[in-house]
Amino acid sequence: MKRCLVVYALPDRQWQWQVTLADPDTIAEALEQARAQAGSLEVPWEGEVGIFGALCDRNAVPRDGDRIEIYRPLRADPKVSRRERVKAGKAERDRALSRQPSPQPARNPKSGPDRQ
């Protein structure tokens, strides 16, 4: 027998369920036990899962003491978000540059009206 912890977290709250599994049991069986304990709590039970931060297949066999994590779906694709931030930063820099006065040509100190 082995004991594992199934966890799920939101930005402001977290839940954990202690489960006892037979040695050959998989992550899927651990999730079934946790789901029975959770009752009507809305958890993305069919979402991605991992052990200590590493993505795992539901057929993986956890070890005694493992923390099985249920991951929330991403709100936005990180690559798309990064591109949008870079694009917004470039647009802001362009606006800032367009507001600056254009540089005046440098004066030649030998040919000014003061020189004779």
Write the layout of secondary structure elements.
Blueprint: E1 2-10, E2 13-21, H1 27-38, E3 49-51, E4 54-56, E5 67-70, H2 78-99
Parallel strand pairs: 1-5
Antiparallel strand pairs: 1-2, 3-4, 3-5
Walk me through the structure.
The protein is α+β, with helices and mostly antiparallel strands. The chain has helices spanning 27-38, 78-99; strands at residues 2-10, 13-21, 49-51, 54-56, 67-70. A five-stranded mixed beta sheet has the order 2-1-5-3-4, with helices on one face. The model has no long low-confidence stretch (mean pLDDT 86).
Label this structure with key terms:
single chain; five-stranded mixed sheet; 29% helix; 116 residues; Ubiquitin-like (UB roll); alpha+beta
CATH topology of the domain at 2-70: Ubiquitin-like (UB roll)
Indicate the structural class.
alpha+beta
CATH homology group of the domain at 2-70: Phosphatidylinositol 3-kinase Catalytic Subunit, Chain A, domain 1
What can be said about the biggest beta sheet?
5 strands, mixed
Q: Report the portion of residues in β strands.
A: 15-25%
Q: Helical element count?
A: 2
Order of helices and strands: EEHEEEH
